[in-house]
Design brief:
With 151 residues, this protein is α+β, with helices and mostly antiparallel strands. The protein has one domain: Gcn5-related N-acetyltransferase (GNAT) (Aminopeptidase), CATH 3.40.630. Helices cover 29% and strands 36% of the residues. The protein has 4 helices and 7 strands, in the order βααβββαβαββ. A 7-stranded mixed β-sheet has the order 1-2-3-4-5-7-6, with helices on both faces. The mean pLDDT is 96. Bound molecules: coenzyme A (COA). Coenzyme A binds next to strand 4, helix 3 and helix 4.
């Protein structure tokens, strides 16, 4: 398994995973905008000749504050440690770039992700009421923060 920077040729595959995995997926346009911005976009791919994309992480950083914007592992590869690997790599990369704190929002019901983030030391710092919109999909976000180690 190889974690590397996203390329523009990955966006279609990323979008497919996004649609099949997230409750409210980002559109391909949003993913393309992320790719063309200065966000840090990393993908995990199999090391064989097929180079199947298995997951990705997207982070933004302004000065010493990083924000985990998206983390996703393709359904059939969930539960094998890839989410943990992508999160660890994302943290490592923003620390290298001088981040000292990291924030994220996660659906209150997404215990799998919350457990993952807690295992990295993230803790809840607040709730954004109805942060996620959409008739049956509206839900509060838990805001989590992590103080990062000095590089
Ligand atoms: C959340 C997500 C990224 C986790 O990726 P993953 O590869 O399945 O997770 P991992 O196998 O690396 O597991 C990491 C940790 O997650 C937690 N976890 C994984 N499966 C879990 C489950 N079924 N129940 C509770 N916690 C679970 C555990 O803390 C686990 O650590 P452990 O293996 O040491 O016990 C993945 O499930 C996903 O893409 N979900 C849909 C998109 C999403 O919700 N993204 C997060 C948005 S903020």
């Amino acid at each position: 398994m190889n974690i590397r920077k996203m390329k523009d040729t990955d966006i279609a595959a990323v979008s497919r995973i996004e649609k099949l995995t997230h409750i409210q997926p980002w559109s391909e346009n949003v993913l393309t905008d992320c790719y063309h911005s200065d966000y840090l976009c990393l993908v995990a791919e199999e090391n064989d000749y097929q180079k199947e994309l298995k997951g990705y992480i997207i982070l933004s950083q302004v000065l010493d504050e990083a924000h985990l914007l998206n983390l996703c592992v393709s359904l059939k590869y969930q539960g094998f440690g890839l989410g943990r690997e992508l999160t660890a790599r994302g943290i490592k990369e923003v620390v290298k770039r001088g981040a000292r704190k990291m924030f994220l929002e996660v659906r209150r019901s997404n215990m799998r992700a919350i457990r993952l983030y807690e295992s990295f030391g993230f803790s809840e710092i607040g709730i954004r009421t109805n942060y996620y919109q959409g008739s049956s999909l509206s839900e509060d976000a838990v805001v989590m923060a992590l103080v990062l180690p000095v590089n």
